[in-house]
Amino acid sequence: MIEIRHRDSGEVLAEIERDSLVGADLRDMRLDGADLSGLDLSGADLSASDLVGARLHGTCLREAILVGAQLRAADLAEANLTRARLGAERPSRAAMLNAARLAGADLSGADLRNVELRQADLAGATLAHADLRGADFQGANLVGVRAHRALLIKANLAEADLSGADLRDSHLNDANLTRARLCEADLGSAFSDGFTVLNLANLEGADLRGARLCHASAQDANFRYADLTDADLTDAVLGGAILHRADLTGADFTRVELASVTLEFANVSKARNAQVPSYKKNLR
User: Fold this and answer.
1) For a tag on the chain, would you pick the N or C end, based on fewer CB atoms within 10 A?
2) Calpha distance 219→33 (Å, rounded)
């Protein structure tokens, strides 16, 4: 028998008649504040369970089911969540991880569709190949995350800190990145013919200083008031993009077609290799 105790009081919250929690049925259980740190919960079903404030530091949750679980302020730092299922087609059924700690966690290939992660700490986490469509990361700490080939379509990343993030070959179509911090982020590709997709993304007021956007497809993206100082946009596709009043100091526009790009009041004169059509007006 396995006893699950409260992280602070030591109170027994549940008694599981098993020798192991691998593949255990823990659905709809009251485990708020539980100490599950370092345990092996691979393949366990924790659907709709209350894990608010639980300690899961270093816990193995590989391929675990956490759909609808309440994980607000839970400690999942260094946890293994590879191919775990937390997301759902309908937001009301997805897991909630607002203010959770996931620093250094491995979420490779995880399903996080429509999951709430507002103000969560994911610094240094791995999100490679994860399905993050519609996920809410507003104000989250995503510094240094490795999100190669992640699906972030329509994700909310407003005011999130993605400094130094590896977003190569990811899909951020229609994502909300308003006032997000993307300093030194890599939005290029790991392949000679690959690219990151930012079509229709909203990057108004975003900080992209020193970001790598080589070959990125950012058609109809909104870069109003964005800071692109020293950003590398070599071979980027910006058809229909809006760079109104963007700071382009030192930004490299080598082989970028600017004919259909809105550049009103952007300081294009301080950009590098920008071939601006003569009919463009109100440039600085």
Assistant:
1) N
2) 46
CA 67 to chain centre: 18
Two tokens, residue 66 = 């956490």
Residue written as tokens 């463009």? 280
- pLDDT tens for each residue of 131-156: 999 999 999 999 999 999 999 999 99
The string over 85-95, giving b where at least 16 C-beta atoms fall within 10 Å of a residue's C-beta and e elsewhere, is: bbbbeeeeebb
For residues 124 and 86, give the distance between their C-alpha atoms in angstroms, rounded to a whole number: 20
Q: Mind spelling out the 3-state secondary structure of the chain?
A: CEEEEECCCCCEEEEECCCCCCCCECCCCECCCEECCCCECCCCECCCCECCCCECCCCECCCCECCCCECCCCECCCCECCCCECCCCCHHHCCECCCCECCCCECCCCECCCCECCCCECCCCECCCCECCCCECCCCECCCCECCCCECCCCECCCCECCCCECCCCECCCCECCCCECCCCECCCCCCCCCCECCCCECCCCECCCCECCCCECCCCECCCCECCCCECCCCECCCCECCCCECCCCECCCCCCCCCECCCCCHHHCECCCCCCCCCCCC
Q: For the segment 217-272, what is each residue's pLDDT rounded down to a tens digit? A: 999 999 999 999 999 999 999 999 999 999 999 999 999 999 999 999 999 999 99
Hunting for tokens 């013919």 — which residue is that? 193
Evaluate whether 77 touches 54 at the Cβ level (below 8 Å): no
pTM attached to this predicted model: 0.94
